[in-house]
Design brief:
Blueprint (H helix, E strand, L loop, with lengths): L2 E5 L6 H9 L4 E5 L25 H23 L3 E7 L1 H6 L5 E7 L2 H13 L8 H6 L3 H24 L1 H6 L1 E7 H6 L1 H9 L25 H10 L14 H5 L10 H4 L2 H8 L4 H7 L16
Parallel strand pairs: 1-3, 1-4, 2-3, 4-5
């Protein structure tokens, strides 16, 4: 298994999975490697920044020159790890990568959780509110409903794209569907699912991913904040990141993302769950009422 390709929309849990996989001594967790080919400010190590010993200016330039056809071989030589985890998520990116045996991981996340992240990081970002509560209250029902409908359409379109290209992915490896909830609540089993048939076994230290050395490109702030703290690198919270600051700073290890509780009022939750296409999207991704985050957890 020379490569693991992670597909999914934004905020699907791909960065968390990448960190856990990248904690294995045989796997380099590259995260959003597609950014190596973009003129993107996130085209650098997400933990170390410009001071990274791995992603120097010269290595960034060489990776860009290697292109999609030579990227993974360059990374194997650079990191001395035979397996590359590419959590770029983009279908089009993987169609450009030189074909080789893959394990493809299609990440899903309950739409209520996904929409909370999209709302905080995109809709509320455009308000001038100083905190999450005021940002939430500054959006009208009409604006909120229109935004949610558009994001539901985008999510459905993404997974339809994956299915249209499924024959291609299957011709170059195994396709595994994995939910964010599985990764967060049963991480060892989730890792076994990804590594099944690869000859690699789950190392228990993969669950303590933040304590390992990582040099990912791009990705989500949540796992990055933990890795930076462990590496002794402070984080400056500005702009929309302040809306998530409490969640990120209070998290060590793996826990479910339930920001929807802070992102939405009761009225907005009704608008989300009643939005056109929401129920169909839940069904499409395999979530039924038993998976609804609003349901209380039954303890034996």
């Amino acid at each position: 298994m020379p490569a693991i390709g992670v597909l999914g929309p934004s905020y699907c849990g791909s960065t968390l999975l990448n960190y856990m996989l990248g904690s294995h001594p045989s796997i380099y967790g590259g995260s959003e490697l597609r950014r190596l080919f973009d003129a993107d400010p996130r085209r650098r190590c997400a933990v170390c920044g410009p001071a990274c010993r791995l992603w120097t200016r010269e290595n960034l330039a060489t990776a860009n020159q290697a292109g999609p056809g030579g990227l993974y071989d360059f990374l194997r030589n650079l990191t001395d790890r035979p397996v590359i985890c590419d959590a770029s998520k983009s279908v089009d990116h993987f169609l450009r990568i030189a074909p080789e045996p893959f394990t493809w991981v299609v990440m899903t996340k309950h739409p209520l959780r996904s929409l909370a992240s999209f709302t905080i990081n995109r809709l509320y970002r455009d308000t001038s509110a100083p905190d999450l509560a005021q940002a939430r209250g500054s959006v009208t029902d009409e604006e909120f409903t229109a935004f949610v409908r558009e994001q539901v359409k985008r999510l459905a379109k993404f997974y339809a794209h994956v299915e249209r290209e499924r024959a291609y992915f299957e011709s170059h490896g195994d396709v595994v569907y994995l939910s964010y909830e599985q990764v967060a609540t049963a991480p060892e089993e989730a890792l076994k699912t990804v590594l099944d048939g690869s000859g690699l076994t789950v190392d228990p230290t993969m669950l303590d991913y933040a304590s390992k050395e990582h040099h990912p490109i791009g990705g989500n702030t949540g796992p990055h904040s933990q890795a930076r703290r462990k590496a002794g690198r402070s984080r400056t919270w500005t702009g929309r990141a302040t809306y998530n600051r409490h969640f990120y700073e209070s998290t060590d290890g793996i826990r479910l993302d339930d920001k929807w509780r802070d992102a939405f009022t009761d009225r907005q939750i009704e608008l989300v769950t009643g939005a056109r296409g929401f129920a169909a999207l839940c069904t499409r991704l395999g979530y039924d009422q038993s998976h609804d985050p609003r349901r209380p957890v039954a303890h034996p």
